[in-house]
Amino acid sequence: MPIAMTRRHLMLSTAALAAGAPRLAWSQKAGTVTMGVITPTTGTFAYAGDLVVRGANLAIEMHGGKVAGHEIKLLTRDDEGKPASGVRRVQEAATSEGMRYFIGAYSSAVGLAESEVAQREKLLQFAAGGSEDFTGSRCGRYTFQWSAHPYTAVRSTLEYVRKAFPQKKTVYTLTADYVFGHALLKYTKIVAAELGFELVGNDNHPFGERQYTQYLTKVVAAKPDILLLNTAGADAVTAIRQFASFGASGIAVVGPWTLEVDQLPELAPEMRTGMILGQNYYPDIDTPANKAFVASYSKKFSALPGYSSAYGYDAFRTVLKAMEQAKSVEVADVVRTLEGMSWDGVLGRMSIDAKTHQLVRPYFVVRCKSAAEMKSPADFAEIVALGDKQQPADQNQCKGMAEL
Amino acid sequence: MPKGGALAAADIVRAAAMVAAVAALPLVIPVNIATEVLIYGIFAMATNLLVGTAGLYSFGQAAFFGAGGYVAGYFLAQGFVSLPLALLLAGAGGGVLAALIGALSIRRTGIYFMMLTFAFNQLVFYVIYSWQSVTGGEDGLAGIRRGTIELPFLGTLKFDDNRAFYALAAVLFLVSMAILIRMTRSPFGLVLDAARQNARRTTSLGYSVHALQLAAFVIAGVISGIAGALFGMLYRIMPIDAVHWTGSAYVVFMVLIGGQRSMLGPVLGAAIFIWLQGLFSLVWTRWPLLLGLFVIVVMIYLPGGLLDLFARVSAWRSRLREQRR
User: Fold this and answer.
1) Which of B16, B224, B283, B303 has the CA that lies 20 to 30 A from B176?
2) How far apart are CA B86 and CA A349, in angstroms?
3) How far apart are CA A165 and CA A172, in angstroms?
């Protein structure tokens, strides 16, 4: 088997290889800052990708398209929800397009993989997602975490339950059998001890489970006061639907990080009624920044923003704010500014924990409304509590930040 | 097999052209993407030993790529730095796994072989997925360092610079290519080729076809494992999707797009596949449709892969030149 049929043949192939290659590196012009949204637009989380881009675009638009005297160039790339594709896109955008700032991974696995590139190439990453490793064992100087810490989520939610329903003491947990679910369970145990709940049972279910009756039968038999759902997304929707048919109205359904506002329409109002949910974002948040965001967003897209859009918007808004404050678009300056910054953001008063790069921010607890209480089809719930208790420092695994 | 001075000279010219092309690649595309093209090139060439030469359509090659990546990655993440040892372990990891899986599936042919390799790939995926304390599970294995080579008199070779790492990948790429070409031209490769065309007849001629196919399977596993180790070191992370069965399907696509009849085909396929994905994803958010369309067009009109296109174009041009005369 020859390497190629003829010499000309080989040269043609080589020429094709060279001609087909993308443009030369470094097209970053002076006076421009390139920011990227690397997000899934194909695959399981494709719906979220477009929403993050909407939010990011709106942040740039409302900032006037310029920052600290520089034009803002926005890049969007598809990470396909896969870590290997995510790192390739980030690397390519950084070397060929001069991208220095990026947000967008919807899956923690993708975000954590991209974080390795961010540290190497000195790119500022504003991540989101349920993994505590972003600010824990895999923390990095160039990576910031927008979503609340799982501890904050569990603590805020259960703290509200403790206050609102002092007679409810026993908790049965249903946990997704992967990293995210296990992290929530770990903090449930810690918080339950802090607040005086009794954990009477736990069941792990595999990712993508469609049949929950075997777990729910056990739950009903154990007669707990609370069913705590340490699971998320489509799995949680299915579990709640099936639990509704058990008619166990004495058991309160609580989810610390279970359904974001984007997913609430998937449940009928009678299935949601009375459910207590923790939220990273809710459109009713009463801050001037959020009101401005919701007004522009609904004007432009005729819909209310959800978690994904709010993340895109607030993460970019924060970075732009830091650039203005630093009067620079150099990554090192912006990282330093962010580490000491405290500001009024979309979610409320916010700051960055310089030791872990966790965004210190309120977490929202909502109670879902019944059909009769709803003023509009998108009026799912009311905010009943805010919590911002941070993970205790002795539990954090971040071994310190590198030099810039 | 080429014999005699003239043909040997042609071989040297080809080898020189290949070295020049590999040297020029990072000048036209970002160096890390060029490295990735070479890594997938190694992986695709190893797969082509099975697909193109032996006619074994394995849909489980990502298991060996991943095994090599995780074994070397774990070793380097634990603080060891010897690159030769890391590559050796990666090759051994890929090879041992290939020997196990191959021994159980090589006697099945056609669709059964495909399904078995596919199933074993998924098995390996879920082992890595659930063995979180070692592999990092869903979040991938992080903290991988690029190993170093200790040379007597010359000191320590380091690969933290991306261009140095490209040079390392280029050397391994060219060595793998030379070995694989030599192998396909050897009696071993000729028997594999014969068995692809008619396995029964080859057996009746006295060759132990299954043993030779198993040997090819193991060799492909070793080389894929080394490619996996390079991939882990490239971005300093071994992501879980590198072991997913879609990785196995993609590498077979690379071979088919480029062309199975030579070792240059899979490399071309890898380059185009990686580049096209990036290009299409910029053009349209529903880009996998375009990629699928491209694969279908190549399958229908260029069954011999893109190399076939170049062969046709040059044949057409020489015909045109003769007509002019």
Assistant:
1) B303
2) 49
3) 16
ipTM of this complex = 0.75
CATH number at residue B220: 1.10.3470
Cα–Cα distances in Å, from A18 out to A15, B18, B275, B282, B302?
5, 13, 11, 20, 21
Q: Do A179 and B132 touch (CB under 8 A)?
A: yes
Q: What is the three-class DSSP state of A111?
A: helix
Rounded CA-CA distance B254/B41 in Å is 9
pTM comes to 0.82
Bridge partners, residue A78, by sequence: A39
Sign of CA dihedral B238, B241, B244, B247: negative
Give the span between the Cα atoms of A78 and B138, in whole angstroms: 20
Q: Where are the beta strands (DSSP E) in chain B?
A: 141-142, 149-151, 155-157, 237-238
Phi then psi for residue B45, to 5 deg, are -65, -40
- Identify which of B220, B240, B232 has the alpha carbon closest to the alpha carbon of residue B69: B232
Chain A residue numbers touching B274 (CB-CB < 8 A): 88
Query: What are the chain A neighbours of B230 within 8 Å (beta carbons)?
Result: none
Backbone phi, then psi, for B142, in 5-degree steps? -105, 175
CB contact under 8 A, A21 and B239: no
Judged by average pLDDT, the poorest of A59-63, A274-278, B62-66, B158-162 is B158-162
Cα–Cα distance measured from residue B107 to residue B210, given in angstroms and rounded to the nearest whole number: 7
In a domain, residue B67? The reply is: yes
Count CB atoms within 10 A of the CB of residue A318: 23
Q: Please, are residues B248 and B60 in contact by the beta-carbon 8 Å criterion?
A: yes
Distance from CA of B199 to the nearest CA of A (A): 19
Handedness of CA A151, A152, A155, A161 (dihedral sign): negative
Asked whether residue B313 is domain-assigned, the answer is yes
Min distance A122 CA to chain B CA atoms (Å): 14
| Degrees to nearest 5, angle at CA A167 with A162 and A171 | 65
Q: With CB atoms and an 8 Å threshold, state whether B262 touches A88.
A: no
Structural domain for B93, as ranges: 26-324
Q: Kindly state whether residue B162 falls inside one of the protein's structural domains.
A: yes
**With 0-12 CB in 10 A as exposed, 13-18 as middle and 19+ as buried, what is B151?**
exposed
Structural domains in chain B (count) = 1
pLDDT digits (tens, 9 = 90+) for B112-158: 999 999 999 999 999 998 888 898 888 889 889 898 888 888 888 88
Q: How far apart are CA B182 and CA A242, in angstroms?
A: 62
Interface contact A17, partner B, CB < 8 A: yes
